[in-house]
């Protein structure tokens, strides 16, 4: 049983990554962002996920510096992720984008750097840059985001290093079974963004019924389902009570039947773009 907020999974290169973290998508720079990240660190979160396109790396960096000081932990205790945006995909431009993200965050290295979207004709050069950064020891792990199976197959034909992570939209209405199976077969860890489908699943009767059994919210049930499916999850919240609640999922375990009930909610529905039809 995954029984605490510091539970980790070991990536294909031996790096340990927390199974649970905080995402900061669409959280603007300012006190709300800084406080959210600090709340998360205070309550035991050890993984923070941002991206250059979010426009909040400076605030995340400030919160990390303040948060680790207040929590009495070190930078090495945190796992920090950022992503290179589509307009920066290319060998030199990706390396420059990495430098810019580091500077904004005020960090010496990232734990994980991802290609944000599989822009046709660009992601291979970007991946070559990530391999360089990784081989130079400037980033602990590298991966991709929003890659379908055919993107992964295409990338891996020429890659020296396999992606360690594929971060995708993942929730009970979009279980990404083909992608998940492919990643498991190739030692690529799946990670979920928008695990709560932007709140659209919280009124689902099956999920609420399971929650009542364990005295848990619908959100907690879904996040637990993620973890038991072997998927890292990074729910977003800026509210202190919600940050605490989201992480209060380590004192119960869903049965095989309950897991299957949630799996069966899949309708291949997205709240974000389809990577094959995204207007880059």
UniProtKB/TrEMBL annotation:
Residues given in the record as substrate binding sites: 116
Keywords: Oxidoreductase
Residue ranges annotated for the NADP-dependent oxidoreductase domain, each copy included: 31-266
Residues at the site labelled Lowers pKa of active site Tyr: 83
Gene Ontology MF annotations: oxidoreductase activity
Matches recorded under SUPFAM superfamilies: NAD(P)-linked oxidoreductase
Similarity comment: Belongs to the aldo/keto reductase family.
Name by which UniProt lists this protein: Aldo/keto reductase
Organism (species): Neobacillus cucumis
């Amino acid at each position: 049983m995954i029984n605490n907020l510091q539970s980790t999974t070991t990536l294909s290169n031996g790096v340990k990554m927390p199974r649970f973290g905080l995402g900061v998508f669409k959280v603007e720079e300012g006190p709300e962002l800084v406080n959210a990240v600090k709340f998360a660190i205070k309550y035991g979160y050890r993984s923070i996920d941002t991206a250059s396109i979010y426009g909040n790396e400076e605030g995340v960096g400030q919160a990390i510096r303040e948060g680790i000081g207040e929590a009495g932990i070190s930078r090495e205790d945190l796992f920090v992720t950022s992503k290179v945006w589509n307009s920066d995909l290319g060998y030199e431009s990706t390396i420059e984008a990495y430098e810019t993200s580091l500077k904004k965050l005020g960090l010496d290295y990232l734990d994980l750097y991802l290609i944000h979207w599989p822009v046709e004709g660009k992601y291979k050069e970007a991946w070559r840059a990530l391999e360089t950064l990784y081989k130079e020891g400037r980033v602990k792990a590298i991966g991709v985001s929003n890659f379908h199976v055919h993107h992964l197959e295409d990338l891996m034909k020429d890659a020296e290093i396999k992606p360690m992570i594929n971060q995708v939209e993942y929730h009970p209405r979009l279980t990404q079974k083909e992608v998940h199976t492919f990643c498991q077969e190739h030692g690529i860890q799946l990670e979920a963004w928008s695990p709560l489908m932007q709140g659209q699943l919280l009124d689902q009767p099956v999920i609420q019924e399971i929650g009542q059994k364990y005295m848990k919210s619908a959100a907690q049930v879904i996040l637990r389902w993620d973890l038991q499916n072997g998927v890292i999850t990074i729910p977003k919240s800026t509210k202190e009570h919600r940050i605490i609640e989201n992480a209060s999922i380590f004192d119960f375990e869903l049965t095989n039947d309950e897991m299957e009930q949630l799996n069966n909610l899949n309708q291949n529905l997205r709240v974000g773009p389809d990577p094959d039809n995204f207007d880059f």
